[in-house]
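[#protein-structures] MJ: dropping MFS transporter here for a structure pass
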Amino acid sequence: MVSSAAKVAPAPRCERPAPAPLWTRNFVAGTFLNFFIAGNYFMLMVVMTAYALTVHQAPAAVAAFCASAFIVGTLFSRFAAAPMMERFGRMPLLVVGCIAEVALSALYLLNEPVGALIGVRLAHGFSYGVCSTTIATVITSVVPPERKGEGIGYFMLSITLGSAIGPFAGIFLANNFGYPVVFAVASVLVALSIPAALLLRPAPATKVKGSEAAAEAEVKAAADAVAGAVAEAPDEEAREDAAANRDEALAASTRVPSTHLEEKISAKVEHSPLARFVEAGVLPISVVCGLLFFGYSSLLTFLTPYATEIGLARAASVFFVVYALAMFVTRPFTGRAFDRVGPHPVMVPAFVSFATGMVVLAFAANDWMILGAAALLGFGVGTVQSCGLAMAVRVTSDARLSVANATFYMLLDVGVGIGPILLGIVAPLLGYANLYLCMAVVGVLALALFLVVAKTEKGAR
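AK: finished. structure tokens for MFS transporter:
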């Protein structure tokens, strides 16, 4: 008779590990910080042209540049943000950038001359670009890899809320209380970003200060430590687990190209001076999203005069509220779907929705068509932006996240920045309705380019 002590113990049942937490203190604080700086940006952007026209009696072109100078400053910051993060560290740079945002917002209260106002707008755009790129880098580094799409979708809702609340608050305060109150409220709002930044406690890897080589050295040291654990593993199962952990640590130090196109571009840029400022692997998807944002710029520039021309100005006044609500409702679902099934089933409908929304807008004959177009465009732009960023960063090493985020946002800024200039030339020739039909074609072209870029993507699931 075999004693109970001699009985073989049953093998432990393998349980699926619980998903890594998403709503950590870092994620919540970073998302709120992004909302504060985005709300400040949109609140001031919508009133700046009118402020320059009415208070400073500036010519129309100069008044418009008082608003768009912010975008110019932001574009320059995309080139500088990654090297600055490498030199000073992400968290110190973020705190200093938030303080600069508060100081520059307060300067509007001094009622400076137009020339000085443009200078402040340039500097403010630069500080905003540094802050937005840095916080995006921190957040994309702390979101669990298996929840990138979901996490970035929630994070980008902070911009959605800022784009809805900021313009509404700016116009309401300007019309009822005057521009000084707008500037004061904007300053208080962005001041809240400082305690939010101080609450952030990212993982040590996100605090790397110095060159990329220093970051890679840390990863290599971690991998070597895990390699030692492989040799000392007591049984085959433990050795397999340790080896898997080692492979993950080694993979974190390099970017694995997602497509053949990415591989070709990476090979050309990797050893060039551009590598310091541009992450070659994210250029393809960044160009796709930048092209879509070129089409989106037509909404910012011409929606109000177009709606006035066709007698639907009332619906246009709440267009961006419906647009933001569509983003807010759909982004969490599209982010989780992106993590489960990959980019194609999520992003292809978004491109189609964008093109359809532009067609509906071009043929709008009543308020409901304007608002329907807003919902379609909100889903399209919001999904492409968040999922495009997830595609860009999900296989980027932590040491290159700052460059990847800067590259992605740089192409979005280019699309939004050159759109009003080029479209302003052709709009008088085509008319607004035909212009929006052309933007539908731009959406189709962006879809075709996306299918080329993501044709051979690996590891989509």
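MJ: nice. Residues 205-240, 246-258 have pLDDT under 50 and may be disordered.
AK: one more thing. Residues 215-229+236-252 form one domain.
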